[in-house]
Write a structure and sequence with these properties.
This protein is about 35% helix and about 20% strand. The chain is of the alpha/beta class. The protein has two domains: about 170 residues, Nucleotidyltransferase, domain 5; about 170 residues, 2-Layer Sandwich (Nucleotidyltransferase, domain 5), CATH 3.30.420.40. It has a six-stranded mixed beta sheet with strand order 3-2-1-4-7-13, sandwiched between helices. The protein has a five-stranded mixed beta sheet with strand order 10-9-8-11-12. Strand 8 and strand 9 form a beta hairpin. Helix 1 crosses helix 2, helix 6 runs antiparallel to helix 9 and helix 8 packs across helix 9. The radius of gyration is 19 Å and the shape is globular. Bound molecules: adenosine-5'-triphosphate and ligand AH0. The site of adenosine-5'-triphosphate has 23 residues, from loops. GO terms for molecular function: ATP binding; kinase activity; phosphotransferase activity, alcohol group as acceptor. It catalyses: 1,6-anhydro-N-acetyl-beta-muramate + ATP + H2O = N-acetyl-D-muramate 6-phosphate + ADP + H(+). Belongs to the anhydro-N-acetylmuramic acid kinase family. Its EC number is 2.7.1.170.
């Protein structure tokens, strides 16, 4: 009988909007039994500290350095995760002893795979001791050490979802977080994946800078604006789009200067179109046309973005909810799944997902004590 883990995935992504938690019972292979999920938003003060940490991280040369606001931001991330897990377990009436593992992503503040550098804030050992639950963390480092990009990590979970739904034809999972990444899943084949371009980060940054809001809620600004084709062409001229996978992105890889002179609405519409065009450009790298695009991540909740993707896509576009999945929880579930795989020594990444030399496991295990 294979060991079945009751694992709690914890994701705080590059959008810096908060922490998603999801419980998953899994053998780390095909068995996926979904449990409760919850989201915990960061306060404005938390976000400001995380933004300062991302800015300070630009000067890092080593992944264990924590100058300036980085040390405080790391404490904040660990503390907010402890609070989130405590609240979640209390609300769901689950004892820590009933959880086998936490899969802890941490907060990415820098991602420069070409320099072998990816930095996720969060103290896995402290998290495990205080939560009283074993924690698997630092899941990107081993991949980078073996020649991979260290991202994306979620594809192995997308592949498990694709397998479980029995669609029977190639599907393209599109995860729209701060950055957008895709996984091409064809029945019986190993997943192919890469980051494709911006997700929500440019749009979130625009809204914060010009309207003092964290996001373009329900795509209202973008829907009121018009795409500026010249600005869009300038954005899409970035050499990133011609590069072949494997490839992965830092949150701040793109310069939004081409939309600086546009009205808020036109800038939002143009950035939406930019994200959509980046996603659809993944078409050039897949071995067969996908028959279905499945949208997940927070960007799937932005109707302006969904419309922009649907208008450009070569096949039907559906939200994860159409398949009975929870688009907001998929990343957190993925980190629960990855933690179970890590504990079993199974690969997290593959040559076709990160460019790692051979399928590689990863993650560090911190004992509860
Ligand atoms: N109702 C909504 N309307 C518009 N945008 C939304 C809505 N809900 C969520 N979003 C967008 O989704 C973002 C959060 O996405 P998500 O939680 O997937 O990001 P993340 O976990 O940081 O991802 P990643 O690590 O993949 O970058 C928000 O910052 C916002 O841009
Ligand atoms: C380095 C890093 O944290 N990358 C994130 C980011 O957000 C989306 C995309 O860029 C993806 O590469 C990754 O997140 C998801 C969870 C992943 O690794 O699959």
């Amino acid at each position: 009988m294979p060991k079945i883990f009751r694992a709690l995935g914890a994701m705080s992504g590059t959008s810096m909007d908060g922490i998603d938690l999801a419980l998953l019972e899994t053998d780390g292979r095909g068995l996926l039994k979904f449990g409760p999920t919850a989201s915990f938003a960061f306060s404005d003060a938390d976000r400001a500290l995380l933004r300062a940490a991302v800015a300070a991280a630009r000067n890092l040369n080593r992944r264990d350095e924590r100058p300036g606001p980085l040390a405080e931001a790391e404490s904040l991330i660990t503390q907010r995760h402890l609070e989130a897990v405590a609240t979640f377990l209390r609300d769901e009436d689950i004892s820590p002893a009933a959880i086998d593992l936490i899969g802890f992503h941490g907060q990415t503040v820098l991602h420069r795979p070409e320099q072998g550098l990816t930095v996720q804030l969060g103290d896995g050992a402290l998290f495990a001791r205080r939560a009283g639950i074993d924690v698997v963390y630092d899941m990107r480092a081993a991949d980078l050490e073996r020649g991979g990009q260290g991202a994306p990590l979620v594809p192995v979970y997308h592949a498990a979802l694709a397998e479980s739904c029995g669609f029977g034809a190639p599907m393209l999972f599109v995860n729209i977080g701060g950055v957008a990444n895709v996984t091409f899943c064809a029945p019986g084949a190993a997943p192919l994946a890469c980051d494709v371009g911006p997700g929500n980060a440019l749009l979130d940054d625009l809204m914060l800078a010009r309207a003092g809001r964290a996001m373009d809620a329900d795509g209202a600004a973008a829907r009121a604006g018009r795409v500026d084709e010249a600005a869009l062409a300038a954005l899409l001229a970035h050499p990133w789009f011609a590069r072949k996978p494997p490839k992965s992105l830092d949150r701040n890889a793109f310069d939004p200067a081409p939309v600086a002179g546009l009205s808020l609405e036109d800038a939002a519409a143009t950035l939406c179109a930019f994200t959509a065009a980046g996603i659809v450009s993944a078409d050039a790298f897949v071995p067969a046309p996908p028959q279905m695009i499945v949208l997940c991540g927070g960007g799937a909740r932005n109707p302006a973005l969904v419309e922009a993707i649907s208008a450009r896509a070569p096949c039907p576009v559906r939200r994860a909810e159409n398949f009975g999945w929870d688009s907001q929880a998929i990343e957190a579930q993925a980190f629960a799944y990855l933690a179970a795989r890590s504990a079993k020594g199974l690969p997290l990444t593959f040559p076709g997902t990160t460019g790692v030399r051979e399928p590689a496991t990863g993650g560090k295990l911190a004992w509860a004590g």
